[in-house]
Amino acid sequence: MSLAKCHNVSVYRKKRLKKYDTITFRCSQYRRFTKCQYQVKAKAFHDGIYQIFCSQHHEYESLENSIVPVEIRSVIRDLAPNGLSNGVPTEPPIQLKTKYITDSLINLCHTYNLPSLLAQYRSSTTDVFSLDNINHWSDCQTKDIDRVSKHVEYLNNTLNKTKSDLQLNENRCKKQDETNSRLQQLINDDKQSKKVLQELHDRKVNDLKKQCDQQETNLIVSEQIKLLTNQKIKLKQQVKEVNDLCTSRGEQIEKLESSKNELKNLIPDRFKSDDAIKTLEQDRIRLQTELDLVKRDLKEPLSSSYEELTQECELL
Question: Of 7, 6, 230, whose CA–CA distance to 120 is shortest?
Answer without folding.
Answer: 6
